[in-house]
Fold these 2 entries.
Entry 1:
Amino acid sequence: MGLDDFTLISATDPSGLPTGPFVGRHLIDGVWCDSADGATFERHSPAHGTPVTRAARGGGLEVDAAIAAARRAFDAGGWRYMGGRERAALLLRVADLIDRDRARIARIETLESGKPISQALAEIEGAADLWRYAAALARTQHGDSHNSLGADMLGLVLKEPVGVAAIITPWNFPFLIVSQKLPFALAAGCTAVVKPSELTPSTTVILGELLMEAGLPAGVVNIVLGYGQPVGAAMSTDPRVDMVTFTGSTGVGKAIVAAAAPTLKKVSLELGGKNPQVLFPDADLDSATDAVVFGIYFNAGECCNSGSRIIVHEDIAEEVTERVVALSRRVAFGDPLDPATKVGAVVSGEHQAKIDQYVRDAVEAGASVRLGGAPLEVPGLAGQFYAPTVISGVTGDMAIAREEVFGPVLSVLTFRSFEEAVALANDAAYGLSAGVWSESVHTCLAFSRAVQAGTVWTNTWMDGFAELPFGGVKESGQGRELGRYGLEEFLEVKTVQMRIGRTRSPWITAD
Ligand code: NAD
């Protein structure tokens, strides 16, 4: 494998790199602060190797203060009882401020995560749209009334905010994912404590700045920077927190469920995936192979929705594999600050080693590397990059077919019958998303019904809309984000039964 086999984007002008690190502080009760013990942590750009962020490292004192502030702000009632119109106006102001600052937000997102700048920019714009959508929900949400319970009875179903929401987010889509949760929580009337990943804290800090600029009352949103231990763990156990909404790995998701159990908090989880795309012989192979390449290399494969395994009918398997290999060579990867780059750096050296181990184990188990299969150096860049990789001859029992590799590594499996395709697709602990490629609407519908997944794409991959709910089944999570359902997650139902007049028959009758 030589560099000539790929489309490499080498280092751009180094003057594009920051002269000093972004400095991140906690936001607690409307005040920006360092940690009481002065602790900090640093983040280096995974593509360039240079330090880009220095952030306050939260401990018990900071989480305690942030939760106390969110609790006070909720219990005081100013936010939860504010009219939907006012709440919506605030969310719309935030959306406008995100638009105004999108270039600044995208740049630090790229520097911390390694993702291409053009993609980061699109994500920030998508996030602004989520704030606008949540604003619409804030104005239109309502409960139910029942007037068919009899002449003397009226029933009301109120939708009330759950309370204090703990929001814990991962590093792969930091700004987008906090925007899949926070505006919906705020639209519902909740207050929040937010903890971004320790690898990508800065864009959440910028969001906090924009919330303050938009006029959000102090204490309604608090941000604590730092690690899962102790910050995330304390947010999951504290009795003053009413719900935890978490996006991240399935392992940590299970730990959060256990931590939240003693106080029976509501827990919403968006976890990992091992998402199959199934290609039938009548598929439009131009569209399908392009979507396969997009599905596996988008965000360097570090994506819960990564289409990390394709299940291809035997009759077309070799043609599909060859086409995918040819397209993979044309994927521009390298310096994420270059607008031409489509695939950037892998998030850390440790993670890169994990990806590489999956490939080695697959080869050991009998699979064949058709392209890539190793780290690659990009000229002029000190960070870590993994070559676009295609592995064929993968069988359902191999770790690479079942576990989330979270890298630019595609596994190719084959099938003979519809039933076998469905069985292979469902043969994973995960159930986040799935895709089917066929010109027959009957095949697409039958597959959509049979596959165990929260989202099914037919003849497309990874489209997304604020209006459509997103989430997983099995070990991919519980609850839904986006759409009306995304708001419902932050609402509790209260039933009010009202008698009209003195018509209630006495329980104890007169003698
Ligand atoms: P991670 O689970 O390591 O960390 C996620 C967050 O949890 C971070 O903020 C981390 O500090 C915090 N955390 C760690 N330990 C904790 C603990 N014990 N208690 C509370 N919080 C703790 O995940 P990651 O590596 O940042 O992200 C990658 C994972 O996220 C992948 O598995 C991916 O599939 C998943 N993901 C899922 C979705 C989805 O919508 N389903 C979206 C993006 C990412």
Entry 2:
Amino acid sequence: MKLIGPFRQVITLANLPLRGKLSDEQLEIIEDGGILISRDKIQQIGNFETLKSENPNLEIEKIEGTQIALPAFTDSHTHICFGGNRANDFAMRNAGKTYLEIAESGGGIWSSVQHTRNASEEELLETLVERIDFLIALGITTIEIKSGYGLDVENELKMLRIIKRAQQQTKATLVPTCLSAHLKPRDFEGSNQQYLQYVVDEILPKVKEENLAKRVDIFIEKSAFQPDESKVFLLKTKDLGFEITVHADQFTPGSSRIAVEVGAKSADHLEATIDEDIAFLAKSDTVATALPGASLGLGEKFTPARKLLDAGAILAIASDWNPGSAPMGNLITQASILATFEKLTTAEVLAGITFRSAFALGLEDRGKLEPGMKADFVTFKTNNFQNVLYNQGSLKAENLYIDGMKIK
Ligand code: NIG
Ligand code: FE
């Protein structure tokens, strides 16, 4: 067994509920704490000196200087496998152009599809691994990554295979999701329903065969797929054995209801969710995921995180890092900003980027420093954990541990 410490504070997030609002008084803070590790799991958290005296023959990993430790973070929604860049979309939006005008002039998701299709596998892998490393440097050890810029059999499989190759190059956990239902590609001859059927018939069986993803996502929106056809599609994917997540209520309400009805693991975005649907989500086990990076990238309102928590929903916070609507990628900055606008407690934000976002991915073995949990944790050089969010992302993570091993 190995004892790591002493830390000025260890914030365990132990005993916090999965759903609903949290007060900061509920946070367990172990002063002068130590983290006792057995193999790749947390054995015990407690006072460093006490743990040391109670357990002779320990390997001790001494922490120098003043540091605090938190469970490592989970980013449960990203699109970080892509070619090209959409800086021109960003500039045009800010100069007053609408989404439709930008799409018509060659921008939008379709432009990322063309860049991704044209990029070589090596190029895509290299930039994907760079983005993974950026997220790891923030203290994130579990990262969901979507396809969705290929939009045909060959290129969707290409994206998912690259995500699988990236997993061989990192100790972080990558969770791939098939988002072939991002948009009907311009070169598909047929209706939306026919394209969705093509995804079911041609893409998903191969995804399954090669074990490339266990999750399916869809963008339900006026400009993408309509509610009824989406529901039919999602029920078919469920029959094929996939878990479901949905891009819901980004601009138009109504689709989070479908996510709940089909038993989705999460409904993400929710910027336009109406009160009635907040109540519906709050009664379900579907995680409501706020994506403040998309609000900041588009200049749109934030997800009603406060209302969702007050109603009893499971609220996760993720980066949505993508070349179009959310180019920043800094989940800590985004979560801190969401807290100031939505009035979220520190406990609610930390829960939203740890065990609640991990739950959205079906991973219940991480995000809390409790006995038996995966020993993934991040440290910061500070004497007070509140400084992590207070500094809005500018306080950099110091060290990062995955399965009890220091990787940074
Ligand atoms: O989550 N809303 C749809 N999909 C992405 C944007 C993808 C893009 O613009 O490239 C999102 O915001
Ligand atoms: Fe997204």
